[in-house]
Each structure stands twice: as C-alpha cells, then as structure tokens.
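[recover] target loaded
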C-alpha cells in the first residue's frame, strides 16, 4: 500500500457553514498522522490554476467558528473536460499531492470520482445546506441553515402578530424541500409547501381563513424555492410569490413575501455542524491512510460511515428520477435492491413529516 506524504483539501460548489470545521479536522488529523496538507483555493479551479497553499495547524486555527470557507469555492466547468482533468492531474503530480479530500455536494463528488479514475485517489465529504444527498442522513451545513431560517421566521412572526399579517417565506433547498419542511414545522407555520409532494392550495387558504376567523393574528407559510409554476412562455415563476397574492386576495389577510435567499448560507456553524464536519473530516483522512479512495463519508443512523462514490451518486439519481440508461449495469441485484429501499426510506421520511405538518397546523 502506498504511503501518502501529502494530501490536498478543497471546497467546491455551494458553500455551507461547517466547511471550515471540516478543513480544520482534515488538516489536523493528517498532520497528526505525519501527512503534509495543502489547501486548494477555489475548488477544482485551484487545481487548474495551481492555486495552492500549505496548511499548518496554525493556519486552521480559529476557523471552526466561521461560516463560508477559507479555501473559497467555485464552479469550474473546465474541470469537467479531458483537458481540464489533465491539467488537474498534472498539478497534483507537480506538487506531489498524493490524494484529495473534496468537500461539497454531488457535483463535487463527481469530480472526486473522476480524479480517482485518473490516478489521484479522492474522498468526498458532504458539505451542502440542502441535505439533498440521498446516500447520507445528514450533510454538513443543514443544521446551521435551518436554525438561521428559524431565527428569521420567528422574527417575521413577531411582526406578523403585531399587525395581523401573513408572511409567505421562501427558503433555499433547490429541489429538496427538507429545509422548508423542518423549519415550517419548527416555526409553527400554518402551511408548508415543498417540491416533493403536492400542495393543497385550496385547503391551505381555507386554513388561513378559518384561523383569521378564530382570532389568529400572525401567520407564516414556508415555501421551498424549488416550487414554481410555469407562465405562458414556459418561464418558471416562484410559487411563493404567486401564493402570497392568492392568500391576500382570497382571505383578505394582508400578506407579505420574504425571500431569505443566501442569508441562510452564512453564519457561524452550530454545534451539530461543527461536530459532524469534524467527524467526517477525520474519517476522510483515515480512509485515505487505510488505502481507500473513491469513497464518500456519510452519516447513517447517527454513525459516520463511508460508501462507494459511484453507489452514492447512483442512488441519488435513482431518488431524483434521473437515472440514465446503463447507470445500474455496474451494480448487483442486491445493491439495486438496497438502493431502492433507501429511496423508499427517504420518501417515507418526507411524507411522514409532511403529513404531520398538515395535522399540527389545525
Ligand atoms: P455541488 O458539489 O454543490 O453539487 P456543483 O454541482 O456545482 O456543486 O459541482 C461543483 C463542481 O464540481 C463543478 O463546478 C465542477 O468543477 C465539478 N463537477 C461537477 N460535475 C462534474 C462532473 N460530472 N465531472 C467532473 N467534475 C464535476
């Protein structure tokens, strides 16, 4: 087994609070085991541009409390091309980088698997606020983002209460409604709307009418950014804005719209994110030192584990109905069955919470 002397760490795709905690853990854990560490600046772009800095124990000091990522992030299209990959591999060879830990989402893991296939062993660590990676119960950044939403919604609720208003709050999550669903429940929203399941607009508006009649003043509706309607030209119109107008005209309750957008991405990571990022970072280094690569570090039932990246990406595509011809060819019948079971589990988790959100809003 090859003994790694130097590893590189990068953050890529959308940033997430807790990425710094992962960088710190990877750096300190590797140094502790006699392995040098370098930081690659700006995701995969840093490999193409040879933008590389040494990481020492002191260079990751006091970053665990900070949101964002000290290594910065980027979306690098050139990296996906054969020429881009050749440049990235050449940079690793030139700088004696034996392996890479890539922190990010599914796109980042695709990059990591490509690097491994081109001779640079790589490990993925989850870092995305959306919690939208099917293979893992949890992604670093999710808890902080949800707590930031919760804080904002609580504030809106105070002012809604004072003025007998409704606020439709749109939250991030791309095609995944988990941030909306969980913060909607935790903030006592009267309705929650997510992309995964049909929304009964009529029932929600009826609910708001009834609540108004029974004397309720402040009302919150949480809508995921992934829900939209198409206009006559096929352009996506965010559903939250449409719903605001419909609630106001059909109930007579003054209704505002608030888009929390990128506010939710920043801020000091919660304990949950710092701890999970630290555990995942240490696991990534251990895997590399055990000679493993092309793995993604995940959380399952409270334990930090790891999975083959291709398996993780494939089950993700299965869950999102994006499987392409041949995607399942590399897997045994047993593996496909376990993927289907995981997709079913994820669907049930969302459905159960969604049903509960309707039950408790009345
Ligand atoms: P996330 O990791 O948050 O899902 P992206 O999907 O934007 O974010 O991916 C981040 C980066 O990972 C991309 O800019 C690109 O450099 C790399 N990447 C994404 N998809 C691939 C791919 N199919 N092959 C190689 N690299 C990829």
């Amino acid at each position: 087994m090859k003994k790694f002397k130097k590893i590189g760490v990068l953050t890529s795709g959308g940033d997430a609070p807790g990425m710094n905690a992962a960088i710190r853990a990877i750096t300190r854990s590797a140094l502790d085991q006699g392995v040098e560490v370098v930081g690659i600046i700006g995701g995969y772009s840093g490999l193409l541009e040879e933008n590389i800095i040494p990481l020492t124990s002191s260079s990751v000091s006091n970053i665990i409390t900070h949101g964002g990522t000290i290594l910065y992030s980027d979306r690098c299209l050139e990296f996906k091309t054969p020429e881009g990959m050749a440049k990235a591999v050449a940079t690793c060879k030139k700088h004696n980088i034996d392996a890479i830990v890539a922190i990010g989402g599914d796109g980042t893991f695709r990059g990591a698997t490509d690097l491994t296939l081109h001779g640079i062993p790589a490990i993925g660590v989850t870092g995305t606020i959306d919690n939208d990676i099917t293979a893992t119960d949890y992604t670093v950044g999710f808890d902080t983002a949800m707590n930031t939403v919760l804080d904002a919604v609580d504030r809106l609720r105070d002012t809604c209460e004072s003025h007998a208003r409704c606020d439709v709050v749109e939250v991030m999550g791309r095609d995944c409604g988990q941030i909306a669903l969980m913060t909607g429940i935790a903030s006592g929203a009267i309705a929650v709307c997510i992309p995964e399941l049909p929304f009964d607009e009529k029932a929600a508006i009826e609910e708001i009418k009834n609540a108004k009649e029974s004397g309720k003043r402040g009302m919150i509706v949480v809508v995921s950014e992934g829900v939209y309607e198409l206009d006559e030209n096929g352009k996506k119109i965010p559903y939250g804005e449409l719903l605001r107008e419909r609630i106001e005209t059909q109930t007579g309750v003054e209704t505002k719209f608030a888009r929390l957008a990128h506010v939710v991405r920043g801020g000091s990571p919660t304990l949950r994110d710092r701890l999970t990022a630290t555990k995942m970072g240490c696991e990534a280094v251990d895997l590399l030192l055990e000679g493993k690569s092309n793995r993604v570090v995940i959380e399952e039932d409270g334990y930090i584990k790891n999975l083959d990246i291709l398996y993780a990406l494939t089950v993700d595509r299965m869950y999102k109905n994006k499987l392409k011809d041949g995607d399942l060819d590399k897997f045994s019948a047993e593996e496909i069955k376990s993927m289907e079971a995981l997709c079913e589990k994820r669907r049930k988790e969302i459905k159960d919470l969604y049903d509960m959100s309707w039950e408790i809003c009345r």
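[recover] notes: The chain has eleven helices and 13 strands.
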